[in-house]
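RETRY 2/3 - previous attempt timed out on the joint model. Re-submitting the same 1161-residue input unchanged.
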Amino acid sequence: MGISPVLWQFLTKWLHHSALFPAEASGISPYVDELYFFLLLMTIVGTTLVAIIVFGFSIRYRRAKNPVATQVEGSTLLEATWTIIPLAIFLLVFVWGALLYFRIYNPPTNAMNIYVVGKQWMWKAEHPGGQHEINALHIPTGQPIQLTMISQDVFHSFSIPDFRVKREVIPGRYSTVWFEPTVPGEYHLFCTQYCGTQHSGMIGTITVLTPEDYKKWLQQSTSGMSLSQNGERLFASMGCNACHSGNAAARGPNLAGVYGSKLTLADGGQVLVNDAYLRDAILNPSQHVTAGFAPIMPTYQGQISEDGLIDLVEYIKNLQSNYRVQQTLVTSASDQAAPTTPTQGTTTPEMVKP
Amino acid sequence: MDSALATPHEHAAHEEHEHVVLPQHRHHFETEEQQREAGSFGMWLFLLTEIMFFGGMFFAYLLYRNWYYPAFAAASNQLSVPLGAFNTVVLITSGFCMALGVWASEVRKKGLLVLMLILTTFFGLVFLGVKTVEYHEKYEKHHIPGDRFSISMFTNPAAYPETKDEKPLAPDMAQKTQIFFFLYFAMTGMHALHMIIGIGLLAWLIKRANRGDFTEGYVAPIENFGLYWHFVDIVWLFLFPLLYLINRHPLH
Amino acid sequence: MSTTTIVSLPDQSTAKMPKRNYLNNEHGLLSWLLTGDHKRIAILYLISITFFFFIGGAFAGLIRLELLTPQSDLVAADTYNKFFTMHGIIMIFLFLVPSVPATLGNFLIPIMLGAKDLAFPKINLLSWYLYVIGGIFTMAALVLGGVDTGWTFTTPLSTHYLNTHVLTTATGIFIAGFASIFTGLNFIVTIHRMRAPGMTWFRMPLFVWSHYAASLLMVLGTPVLAIALVLVALERTLGIGVFDPSKGGDPLLFQHLFWFYSHPAVYIMILPGMGVISEVISTFSRKRVFGYTAVAFSSVAIALFGFFVWEHHMFIMGVSNYSALVFSLLTMLVAVPSAIKVFNWAFTLQKGSITFETPMLYAFAFIGLFTIGGLTGVFLGSLGMDIHLTETYFIVAHFHFVMVGGMLMAFLAGIHFWWPKMTGRMYPESLSKLSAVTSFIGFNLTFMPQFILGYMGMPRRYAAYPPEFQVLNVLSTAGATVLGVGFALPLLYLGWSLKYGAIAGNNPWQATGLEWQIQSPPLTENFIETPIMDHEAYDYEWLANKTKYEVTTVG
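RETRY 2/3 succeeded.
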């Protein structure tokens, strides 16, 4: 940074204690604040410059002092100056901001992933280990954390001002944001996209713990099944195991280890299998047909909630072998056939409770 | 008096010539020509706003056709190309009659003008009639978006005589045909609305043309309405291929 | 150089009201309601937008009252949501968009060009009626229970999740939008086709240039808002899913369509105000605007670039990072012409002969507050900074700085500057100066704290907030009270001046421009004979030679 870390700490902590500035609680906060102070400086300098020019000329050339005006057409030099200098400063700000943006919205590969579902008017956070939190999030310091978020209804926006991050939470697709908390404590969580009546009530607390405290919290708050265990249950109960059994002659592609791989689709395109892909493949399968397979997968649009989809995605993410898949096939095939493809007319929505 | 900056007398004398005040002359215009040019310019600008208006729907069409091409192709096959082509010819003929009407107005042939305006209206009404038939057909087949929309013709085409040669769509893709039909109704509906407004204006123009208002040198309303009518025509010329002719094979 | 003394105030003893002018030419309500006279239509607009301004202002007051305490205790949350929605919709569509163009633009553009009227007087009148009907629909929605979508009508909230009067409001805005389109269309044709002999493009006042640029935006941008609202209405009534992801639609499509208009809309709002500032600064420095050509081209540049930055309202909405890059860069580019203008105005003062009448005070307020507001826009155009600041009170402060500190100050500058021309009367100068200073102080007290609140993270559109934000909110509300007084005063003294104000005469400010060479108030036909423009705009030397003709005469 440009200024001494001691001075910086003093400045930001003093401002924070005066209730004029947010805390710096994530790895990226100081960088955002740095850009902010530069922009503040730019504004103060720019405004002061304009004020000096305006007041200076007003006083020097007031009617009493200068009864006759001198007509001046202009000055190309001045025009060039005040075109180029602002442009240069704005372009600098552009580059700086762009670099920051890419840092904030490109998570590192070792980030711990937590799912967030936003709905009117609350936040549900789902840790991979199965811990569910409402309007709260417990996270450790020193670890990059990625949030994979989706809305169940309207646009929301997940905002943690002290981390200097926010991202829109959109119905119909995942959005992600990441951060690395640095200071234990409690911080505000706000919804920052107007979403109806209780928009100002859709707030919560981000609790940042030291790694040891976090481990303790994890143990205290397990709620039974982890997300992927839940997903495994859904995988079987919704009949996915019938086609995606992992057998050589299976009707659907093998899903073990597919997450993170590059998949060739039936139309020749290549795609990276990530959360968004998996979710969309469950809802709109005909647009995501793997090469070598027929487009026979039924859609589950309207039959599964976003929470259920998260469970399935988490399950497939962690699926390394089809051993248990085939086990469940054996146990379920003994008493009933796998569900058939929904055909004529519109699909009747049946919510599957995860 | 300083209300004018300079009033050379030659200017005033020159103006007297053109001060033969025609009945349609508006006082804020200096000359007939200025009035006519302003009117024409205004109509072109208005048409530009119409392009921006339709543009929003064309953009939505672009986006969703790109995402859901199979659904768009299958749904487009449900539109009748013969009817659409017939309508295209009808509308072009209507436009041709309008152009002849403009000429008639310029050469001051009242009878011809009135006839051309009536023919323009007639063909416009034929167009709307055909559209009504098409809309009704969609209603019968449960292809109007909303609660009664049915995708069965797309998921199980073999069961229907019209689609027995088509390939079935997966249900999730079949659901997207609803978006195609929404855009179809929105775009052709908005187009039809503009035609209805145009026909209303034509009725008024016919009445005035019959009185001889437009065959004494006052061509502007006919001309400007002609611009509007041709614009409506051109919008259809874009709508027809985009909506009716997706993935058609001529030898089918 | 001129040797005659320059008088800045009318010679009151000899000034008389002209016997025949556009106000007394015809009598009766119908002569106003069926008028084709651009000046009368301007007055009709002035009355209506003032009405809507105070309603929108009342909502602002209610918002600030609620925000005095951290809890949502004054009104229910739903009601608060209706407050900020109505405040936004009324202020943007029923006040700011028509403010300068439909009042001052309508009144002055034909006169500034040497024409007798706009190209299409009947369409001008239609435009006013459409505006009023749009306003009536909006008031109907208000009276029937209000609407709480936010002025941005975000889908799917507005299409599927609210049961307030969305359709009524959308219809009102749709109709009012056509008023805007017709005004812009009228201006463009008039400027192209009806300039007096000798009035070349570069002899037009800069006020006309900025209205030309704004008109381009009005004509090309507003229809896209219209179609966005139509699609929302159709989705709401018919239940199809053009914006609904569960049916294959995309809510982001609405965002693109909406912001494609709504970003140019902010330039529609500010450009005419910038035109006013050019005229005021020039007159009260007695100098041609510095860099006339640069200012003229900057106006058009703002209009052009303004069409290509809309995605900067969507940086956190999951748009592709690369598209975000492009739009951020373009946003930086669009900031430059505004900077050019500010410096050109500032340098107009150099070597001028400056006085500080009320319009000049408002112009100074504009320059300072618009600079701050515009530079905070650069904060928001910078991608990484925008993530933290977007959807917070920083945005609220930013747009109020440019819209209120900028545009509204410019509107008041223009009203005061041309009040003598429109009414033939002067307003009381000391009271108006007091009013200007009060507004300025009130404005800063209201909106400066909001920048701080925004950086701290206080979200916008919140009825309740964490207690640590209270002090700044209280300051802001206190400021709003002062600001309200500052805005209410002009209504009172301008009304007073209609009967008791000093007679203005033709050219109380000794300004250049065709409008100052005719009587105040003008004749219905503006000019007795078509003027011929034989000198540049802002030609004070020409003006000095003309003073030997007259200063205050009657018509």
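Residues 1-30 of chain B form one domain. Closing ticket.
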